[in-house]
Specification:
The complex is a heterodimer of chains A (112) and B (117). Chain A is an all-beta fold. Chain A has strands at 4-5, 11-14, 19-25, 32-38, 45-51, 54-58, 61-66, 71-76, 85-92, 101-102, 106-111. In chain A, the strands form two sheets. In chain A, strands 2, 4, 5, 9, 10 and 11 form a six-stranded mixed sheet that branches. A five-stranded antiparallel sheet of chain A has the order 1-3-8-7-6, with no helix packed on it. Chain A is globular, with a radius of gyration of 13 Å. The termini of chain A are far apart. The mean pLDDT of chain A is 93. Helix content of chain B is 0%, strand content 49%. Chain B has strands spanning 5-7, 10-13, 19-24, 31-37, 43-50, 53-56, 65-69, 75-79, 88-95, 107-108, 112-116. In chain B, strands 2, 4, 5, 6, 9, 10 and 11 form a seven-stranded mixed sheet that branches. Chain B is globular, with a radius of gyration of 14 Å. Classes of the chains: A mainly beta (112), B mainly beta (117). Chains A and B meet through strand 4, strand 5 and strand 10 of A and strand 4, strand 5, strand 9 and strand 10 of B.
Chain lengths: 112, 117
């Protein structure tokens, strides 16, 4: 079993829909949680990060972390065709361990 | 340049050959990371540099893989005697020096697409 599980999709939605992307993880010691967006043939781009549990909002994006359930989510409001990409969750341990552990990514397709 | 630069962007080579992949981090970033992304897989951590030293090289899959960093800047990932299973996208990221509290975001390059024939 992988440390971080993520549904590969694809997830297809119409423009304007609310999108929910999720990851589950097994290591309760993870402290930092990130969401990256990756366009085809490009490197991942950091969207948001959250420390420990809680919510964080940035424009149309909201990240949620529920450490008790080992479950993280990214919500995208008013989705746009330009949001079509692969979304990768990533997480890491405390400051002594810098490597990120990634999910496999969910491919999102937003149709006009 | 403003971002992480990787070269070559694509590399095709024959099984058994050695390859060198280069990463030029963002200026001022002392931390540098290599990851590998295989088809259908998430990114796998390979190695982390802080300055010129590598405190974590736990992700290197075999002794055919090595990496170095000189002058606290450019890094080279070398794969010797390449195998077909080495085919993947090799991504480099850099960040400011990690600190006790807070997160230093890792900024990624666009990767080197390596194909082993």
């Amino acid at each position: 079993q992988k440390e971080v599980e993520q549904d590969p999709g694809p997830l297809s939605v119409p423009e304007g829909a609310i999108v929910s992307l999720n990851c589950t993880y097994s290591n309760s010691a993870f402290q930092y949680f990130m969401w990256y967006r990756q366009y085809s043939r490009k490197g991942p781009e950091l969207l948001m990060y959250t420390y420990s549990s809680g919510n964080k909002e940035d424009g149309r994006f909201t990240a949620q972390v529920d450490k008790s359930s080992k479950y993280i989510s990214l919500f995208i409001r008013d989705s746009q065709p330009s949001d079509s990409a692969t979304y990768l969750c990533a997480m890491r341990l405390n400051t002594g361990f810098q490597k990120l552990v990634f999910g496999t990514g969910t491919r999102l397709l937003v149709s006009p | 340049g403003a971002g992480v630069s990787q070269s070559p962007s694509n590399k095709v080579t024959e099984k058994g050959k050695d390859v060198e992949l280069r990463c030029d981090p963002i200026s001022g970033h002392t931390a540098l990371y290599w990851y590998r992304q295989s088809l259908g897989q998430g990114l796998e951590f390979l190695i982390y540099f802080q300055g010129n030293s590598a405190p974590d090289k736990s992700g290197l899959p075999s002794d055919r893989f090595s990496a170095e960093r000189t002058g606290g800047s450019v890094s080279t990932l070398t794969i010797q005697r390449t195998q077909q299973e080495d085919s993947a996208v090799y991504l480099c990221a850099s960040s400011l020096a990690p600190r006790d509290m807070g997160n230093q975001p890792q900024h990624f390059g666009d990767g080197t697409r390596l194909s082993i024939l």
